[in-house]
Fold:
Amino acid sequence: MDVDLGLLLLRVVLTALLWGHATQKLFGWFHGQGAQATARSFEHWGLRPGLGFVILSGTSELIGGALIVLGLLIPVGVMIVVGTMIVAIAYNLSHGLWAHRGGYEVALVYALLAIVIGVTGPGAFSADAAWGLTWLHGPLWTLGAALLGLAGAMGPITIRNITVRHAASSTDAAA
Structure:
């Protein structure tokens, strides 16, 4: 019972953080920039079209968080959260680990918390438990979900890398 309560608390906290992060981007809540300003930042980072990527990342955080807080189809929630956070990690990698220096610390923690929930399962207080879907939990399902999340992240990461490379070669050609 204590473990199930702890897993519920972990799911609620992770989802609250994911939803807060998503609504900062999408709506400007919690001192966020909102969709238009975030879109300009995304475009500066090489994610074009910026508004499309803002909507994709914000919606992904909302949906991934909803699945996790409900304890519903946990591997799908893990896949979505891990994929979204890998894109954030890829962008922030050059800044190092620590968030106060613009690093990837927060995205890494969110992804790892989702993975922990996938490996352990969401606990007794979950839709998966209520509907007999506990066979969806564990290391193999979570590994598969994380790998699919990584595969999904490759699209935005590739677009960003191509955009950044193109901008650098255009700058070099102009000089």
Summary: The chain has a mean pLDDT of 94. The first helix runs from residue 2 to 27. The chain has seven helices and no strands.
